[in-house]
Design brief:
The complex is a heterodimer of chains A (about 190) and B (about 190). Chain A has about 190 residues and is an alpha/beta fold. Chain A contains 6 helices and 6 strands, in the order βαβαβαβαββαα. In chain A, strands 1, 2, 3, 4, 5 and 6 form a 6-stranded parallel β-sheet that branches. The chains are: A alpha/beta (about 190), B mainly beta (about 190).
Chain lengths: ~190, ~190
């Protein structure tokens, strides 16, 4: 079970990368955490480039396809999603029928130094991911005052927030494991059932 | 002036009746953007009407969710996503009516509709014809049924607010089927 972490902030020591590392520390032993490091390399989305989108987009789609679950951590820029993160979502939403985000389990969390914890950006990112076809967890984790939100070990300092993050991760992994009974109907099964 | 009493048919056509998919449709209609009625349909579906010698009937229908037909590929992909039908995990919609009541041309079906593992009772109203010999000697009956459901009860939850109030998509959806059914060979 691989969980891919995507930080919407490109800054090396960003609060949202710290939040993803805090999440990694809470994952169950059967889950492997991988931090995506190629967001800055992704070029602006352009339909003219779709036939040959280049190595950065190909790698982005490949790591998405290889992950069992996605954990996005986003800051909030001007009350919305950072442009580079939204751009990456747009690339991963196409081609429509085989989009890398389609049916992919995903959760959104976020941190900001302000008092709202990137809550608007999280809502907008959830909307964009759902429209792209992701299997989205309907939860949020607004980590406000991010300068002081982490303890020296990198974990979330507030116990309640840590429990909330743990609960979101549990739900995300449950979603990635899928329903207990397979619901896929084989071709032709329709006719046999009625 | 004399009048003649005409008995109203209440008997369902005895036997097993299989769908002629070429001449049948299964669709839906939902208010879109608060202004228009958007209609879509499913390409792949099946239905069987079974009526015993005692007159009791059962209608079973199944629809393949990913066979939805709309005019735009983006919309089709969105309708197949977890916000709507989640076709990867829930490939089929199903309706089973074990109570069929006929009064002349009128037909009332009381059954259960299952979408995305959500099952709720649904009463559908419509019409039924008498068996008719058609081209090639096939005996056929026609059924139309219409029902209203609240899509949010079945996990089809997407919506978006409109700038001046209201929402993009109504919760109430009308389901409409028009079935041509052929008598199965004994």
């Amino acid at each position: 079970m691989q969980v891919l972490g995507i930080s919407g902030s490109l800054r090396r020591d960003s609060h949202n990368r710290r939040l993803l590392r805090a999440a990694a520390g809470l994952l169950s032993p059967d889950a492997e955490f991988v931090l995506f490091d190629g967001l800055k390399d992704i070029p602006p989305f352009d339909e003219d480039d779709e036939p040959a989108p280049g190595p950065a987009v190909s790698r982005w789609r490949e790591v998405l396809a290889g992950a069992d679950a996605l954990l996005f951590a986003t800051p909030e820029y001007n009350a919305s999603i950072p442009g580079q993160l939204k751009n990456a979502v747009d690339w991963a939403s196409r081609p429509i029928e085989s989009a890398a985000l389609r049916n992919k389990p995903a959760a959104v969390i976020g941190a900001s130094t302000g008092i709202f914890g990137a809550v608007w950006a999280q809502a907008e990112l959830r909307k964009a991911l759902a429209t792209a076809g992701a299997r989205l967890i309907d939860r949020e984790l607004p980590v406000a005052g991010a300068d002081e939100a982490f303890d020296p070990d990198g974990a979330l300092a507030e116990r309640e927030q840590e429990l909330e993050l743990d609960s979101i991760l549990t739900e995300l992994l449950d979603e990635a494991r899928g329903p207990e009974a397979p619901r896929q109907a084989a071709e032709g099964e329709l006719a046999r059932q009625v | 002036m004399s009048s003649t009493a005409v008995a109203t048919a209440t008997q369902l056509p005895v036997g097993t009746w299989k769908l002629d998919p070429t001449h049948s449709t299964a669709g839906f209609a939902v208010k879109h953007m608060g202004v228009s009625m958007f209609r879509g349909r499913f390409e792949d579906f099946d239905a069987t009407l079974t009526v015993g010698e005692d007159g009791a009937g059962e209608l079973v229908g199944a629809v393949r969710a990913d066979s939805i037909v709309v005019k735009d590929d983006n919309l089709k992909a969105h309708l197949g996503s977890p916000e709507f039908f989640d076709t990867e995990r829930y490939p089929e919609l199903r309706y089973v009516a074990q109570s069929l009541t006929r009064d002349g041309d009128e037909l009332i079906a009381d059954g259960e509709l299952t979408i995305k593992d959500h099952t709720h009772p649904v009463r559908a109203r419509g019409s039924i014809t008498d068996p008719t010999e058609t081209l090639g000697g096939a005996i056929k009956v026609g059924i139309t049924l219409e029902a209203a459901i609240d899509r949010t009860e079945y996990g089809l939850s997407f919506n978006a607010p409109l700038p001046s109030g209201g929402v993009a998509l109504a919760n109430d959806v009308r389901l409409i089927v028009e079935l041509e059914l052929a008598q199965a060979e004994a």
